[in-house]
Amino acid sequence: MMTEVLREEAVPLLSRPAPAPAAADLVPTGIEATARITARRDAAGATVLPVLEGEGPLAVRRLRAVGAEARAALVGAMSAPLGGDRLAVHAEAEAGARLRLTSTAATIALPGQHGQPAFYDVRLTVGRGAAVHWLPEQLISAAGSDLHVTTDAEVAEGGVLVLREEQVLGRTGEPPGRLTSRLRVRCAGRLLLDQELCCGPGAPAGWDGPAVLAGLRALGQLLVVRPEFADAPVQPRMLADHASVTPLAGPAALVTAVAPDALSVRKLLDEAMTELLA
């Protein structure tokens, strides 16, 4: 949600009202909000959540734990991100902890009142022997929006990371907004993956061509970091006409998929996740 801060000079009490500010005096600002989650293993081996905080549109709710795994969900408390917003999610699983973080609904990037871009930064930290599952619902890039998404993950030795990203270009019957998405992952102090994709109006030529999206509207990727992959690397292969699994130079595998709709992307990624976590 956008707000406007009006800059005006102070006037004496009971004086005549000051004239309305000119357009140049309007300073557009967006919402700045951060959600913070920390998972910690207790003496009994279960995972507790000593930090579970949300701000503005990023509300965080504790879910029922499953075994030693703590679970939480992001709940959208208002429409966001809009142009000008700066949102962030910081989630950490300390050594030996287990955390699964989801969202309750899709995130819709919408245009703001002043044509500014919005920013959504996700930071995931996986401690030694810990596990983090980051499994949000789809991100929908609505017409006229401009969103920059950055996901940074740091995985310590022996850690497990399951990261799923799904993006839909435009709602039904509308063109997409501009979406810039960057994913950076480090494992045991070494860079594992650093990639960026830009789609929509103003993106580099060819983003919707046969080498990238091939005219399809939904895309997704699944990154799985597991220590077991160091000794038994995943074999590269096609999963469908527009989906594949690729081993990375480290104990990890990357699944990428594009499809006509979000449901098809989710089906492909779910099948791959079941296989990679077996």
TrEMBL record:
GO molecular function, one term: nickel cation binding
Cited InterPro entries: UreD
Keywords from the named record: Chaperone, Cytoplasm, Nickel insertion
Domain of life, source organism: Bacteria
Subcellular location: Cytoplasm
Role: Required for maturation of urease via the functional incorporation of the urease nickel metallocenter.
Assembly and interaction partners: UreD, UreF and UreG form a complex that acts as a GTP-hydrolysis-dependent molecular chaperone, activating the urease apoprotein by helping to assemble the nickel containing metallocenter of UreC. The UreE protein probably delivers the nickel.
Name of the protein in its database record: Urease accessory protein UreD
Gene transcribed to yield this protein: ureD
